Structure formats: C-alpha cells, structure tokens
Amino acid sequence: MTFPRSCGLLLHLTSLPGPFGLGDLGAEAHAFLDYLVEAGQSWWQFLPLGPVGESYSPYQSSSSFAGNPLLVSPAGLVEAGWLPRSALRRGPRLDGSPDSIGPAVAARLGWLRQAAAGFDRNDPDFRRFRNAESFWLADYALFEAIRTQQNQEPWWRWPEGLRRRDPRAIRQARRALGPEIAFHEFAQYAFERQWSQLRAAAAARRIQFIGDVPIFVSLDSADVWARPELFALDAHGHPTGVAGVPPDYFSADGQLWGNPLYHWPAHRAEGYAWWIARLRQTLRRVDRIRLDHFRGFEAYWEVPADAPTAASGRWRPGPGAPFFRALRSALGGLPLIAEDLGEITPAVLRLRDRFGLPGMKVLQFAFGSGPSNPHLPHNYPANCVVYTGTHDNDTSLGWFQSLTAKDPRPTPDPSSEPGYLLRYLNSDGAEIHWDLIRAAYASVACLAIVPLQDVLGLGSEARMNIPGTPTGNWLWRCQPQHLADPAPRARLRMLAETYGRLRAEQPPRAVPESPSRTGLRRQAS
User: How far is the C-alpha of 263 from the C-alpha of 86, rounded, in Å?
Assistant: First the structure.
C-alpha cells in the first residue's frame, strides 16, 4: 500500500507534556491532534504501545497485544467517574523531569488501582471488551498477576507448575489471584477506551496514525510464556540463541538485543496465525505499521545465548515471501512501512519490492559514501518514507553540532564532511534542522516524517534513545511552551503547501473488527 504525497510528525505519547509526570492519552494528546492539523500534517507516528519494563523501552514489552497502562490518563479516569478528583490533588508533584519518572509511575499505577477497586465489572461495555479480547487478555492478565505474586521474577524462575503452565497450577492461580487479574483486565479496558476516544478524535480531524511493531518480543513476556513452542527455547525456557545485529553505524560490537528468536517452522505450521493476530490487533489501533527490522524477515542475526557481544553471531534465514503472502491474504493488504535500515542485501530489497512495501530513508545517514548514497534525496524512489532522523538518532541539531565539532582535517570521504552537507542543502548551517526538513519535503518520497524535536530545533538534550545504552533513554518530554509557539506550525504548513504535501482530504481506512481467536492459540487452561 503506497502513501499519498503527505507528511507527518514523530512523537511518542510519553513525550507529550502534562501534569502527571509523563505524556498519556489525555487532553494533551487531543491537543496535539489540533497541532498537527494547524501544521498541515496528515500523520502522527509513535513508538510501540505495549507495557514497558524498568528501562521504559517500548521495544521490550511484556505483551505484543496489550496497551501500556502508564498511558492511561488519570484525568480520564476522573472523567469516566471511576476515580474521585480529590485523588489527583493528593498525588505527588510531578514536573516531568527524569528524576520524577519513578514517582510518576507509582502514582499512575496507584490511581489505576484505586479506580479498578470501585469499578463495576458487570458493566456491559467491559464485559464485551473482555470477551472480545479474551484470546490474549486472559493470558496477559494472569501473567502479570503471577509476576506480581512472584515479586517480579521472570517466568522461567517461577514454580515449575506455573512455568510449564500445568493445567492444575493455572486453575489454582486463577482462583487465588482473582483480584490482581481483575486489575490488569481493568487497566487494559481503560487503555482501550481512552485509545478509542483519541482515535475517533483523530478521524474527525482526518489525522491518521502510524504505529510500530518490533520484530522481536521480550523473553519475559506473556507472549513467550503462553506460547513457548513458537520460540527457540530449551527445555528450561532459556533461549538457544538471541537476537541482535552485527557491527554497524551505531556500535562497533553490534547490538546485542537479547530477545528470543522465533521457531519459524512452528509459525509456518499454524499459518503464521500468531503474527497475523498481532498485526491485526495493532491495525485496530493505527492505520499503518512501521515493521521494525524488516531485514530480519529475510535473514536474522543469531547470537549465541552466552555471547558477551553481538559480533560473534551469524545470519540465519527468515520466513521470507511465504510469511508476507500469508499476512497479505489475512489482512487484505500490507499497510506496512519496511524499516530497511542497517546491513541491507539485494535479497532484502527484492523481498521489500516484491510486496510493494515503502522503505525508509534517513537524512542523517545520507552524508557519507558519496553521491550514490541511497539516503541522499536525489536517489529516492517515490515509494519510500523519508525521515530527518528516527528515535534512534540524535536530533538533527545535535547531530550537526557533533559533525562540526570533529577534527577539521580532511577525511578520506569528503562527502562525510560538513561542507558537503551544507553544499548539498544550499545551507549556511544556521537553521540546519529546517534545511533538512525542507530537503525531506522537497524529495519525491511519498511520505515525509519529522521528529517533533527537529521542528523545535532542539539539541542532543532532547534525544530519545542511544542504541546500546541500557539506561537514560525514552524519557524526553516536550514542554508546554514548545507546543504553544505558533511559528513552527506555520512554517511546517508553508512547506507542506509548497511541496504538495498538505493534508490529504480523504477519509481514514476503516478500523478492523476485533480479531477472531480461531486458530490463534491453544484453548486457555
């Protein structure tokens, strides 16, 4: 599925401003829809929406199907009548600084628990939600309840009956942990209700959403615990190999992600039903999906489970074309963006192009290896999505400042020097972020996506993630004054008008119905 010529912004929901320590699905998210409209944008792209762990990474989630309870708006709980307004007044002072993230998480979970305690589980909407989502919700809520009972120990350290999902142990756990299971079911209902409200508000403004699906899942997740046969594990639940990428732009040792790898023959045997359900669930929430690490579907980097770095890995064949044919048949199309960055081979490009998927171009990768660099705008095909940078890059201003701070002596590759960048953009460097935005908008790429940090001209202090670093990421938040300034909105709209990317006046794609559980998973114990 190709995009109409259009543009959008990249901003994860947690980066929104607000009074409760991190961004959420409340009033600030609805206000950002108006920001997009005024800026002439058609798309809002964000990072994965699942529950996060201690590192707050949206790419290490305890479920591929659940929503992040921390995104539930406390004010929305009050508006729904589930939480007294006085509860919010008694909460801690949450200024959104990195130091306040711990208190913010604790406060939000406390408010959710207070709301859940008085919630009527016989509410007809809740009962419909619980029935429709039972194909994943039953396992997820039980998983989280047991993990709480086991003091957050990973599932492979649980008592054997629970670890192996012995039917008797599972029945006993469901009876003993009823209130905790009910809390997690309520948290998911609250998320889905608030998400539906945001989705409806976006549709009314003709704003569409781009979501993000990581290729791999966390080992300590309901996905792996509930369906271990779909993953490459030994008899004790330990991975026989883990995911990563070889040495690249970001790391001389490669990136050791540590996620379990898929047992692709088991997926193939059930017609890729788990993957189909995963993408269908995401497409109920968004209009298009950035499919992370597309390269891994052609071949993936397998690292020995005990290796200290990813450098000792090897390439293994992925599921390839049969996988995408199954998705296309089940979903009625492939509304995907192929994240085709990193070490890309002709076979990866052939797989991408065989299914007509738009790939990604990143302007921060364009200035090196000469004028044939595929990330330079004059080399783009129309069917691609151009970014000034992604969540894994520095901000454009921070990146440019790092370039100009390097050793001024000539390099073997003149195209990597700041002078080439400035000549290419016809820029003096004073507003390098806007020069890069203009280059993205002027290109033939069907879609141009810009991180909000670049629109605001922020430096490295606003970076979202540094790959390969375990802490200090995912915490950046914009401030209310950033979004109050009308000048960036007007400038974006002018560029959208100039380069034919002004908001497409077309209705959004229809939202799919709830997925069927038929063929998805074994009967719950």
Answer: 50
Residue 450 backbone dihedrals phi, psi, to 5 degrees:
-125, 130
Digit-coded pLDDT (tens) for 405-457? 865 555 556 666 788 999 999 999 999 999 999 999 999 999 999 999 999 99
One-letter-per-residue 3-state SS of 81-110 = CCCCHHHHHCCCCCCCCHHHHHHHHHHHHH
* Residue scoring higher pLDDT (515 or 448): 448
Clarify whether 248 is annotated catalytic: no
3-state helix, strand, coil in the chain (%, to 5): 45, 10, 45
Whole-model pTM: value is 0.93
| 452 touches 10 (CB < 8 A) | yes
pLDDT on residue 441: 98
- CB count, 10 Å around CB of 322? 12
Q: How many CB atoms lie within 10 A of CB 108?
A: 23
Q: What is the mean pLDDT of the chain?
A: 92
Residue 13 CA to residue 26 CA, distance in Å, equals 10
292-305 burial string, b = 16+ CB within 10 Å, else e? bbbbbbbbbbbbeb
- Catalytic member of 133, 339, 394, 435: 339
Question: For residue 507, which of 38, 31, 42 has the smallest C-alpha distance?
Answer: 42
CA–CA dist 500, 341 (Å, integer): 27
Which single residue is written with the structure tokens 């006085």?
A: 86
d(CA 161, CA 324): 37
| Tokens 């479920």, residue located | 63
Average pLDDT, stretch 342-364? 96
Q: Exposed e or buried b for every residue in 365-403, given b needs 16+ CB within 10 A?
A: bbbbeeeebbbbbeebeebbbbbbbbbbbbbbbbbbeeb
* Distance in angstroms (rounded) separating the CA atoms of residues 258 and 239: 9
Cα(453)–Cα(398) distance, rounded to whole angstroms? 10
The one catalytic residue in 298, 302, 392, 417 is: 392
- Ramachandran quadrant class, 317 (left: phi over 0; alpha: psi -120 to 50; beta: rest): beta
Note if 180 is an active site residue: no
As given in the structure block, the two tokens for residue 63 are 């479920």
3-state secondary structure of 221: coil
Q: What is the DSSP string of 305-363?
A: TT-SSGGG-EEEE--HHHHHHHHHHHHTS--EEE---SS--HHHHHHHHHTT--EEEEG
Annotated catalytic, 34?
no
- Say yes or no to pLDDT of 35 above 60: yes
End-to-end, the C-alpha distance of the chain in Å comes to: 39
Give 316's strand partners: 300
**HSE on the CB side for 197, CA within 13 Å?**
18
Q: Which residues pair with 291 in a beta bridge?
A: 213, 338
Active-site entry in 133, 144, 220, 292: 292
Given a contact cutoff of 8 angstroms between Cβ atoms, the answer to whether 455 and 492 are in contact is: yes
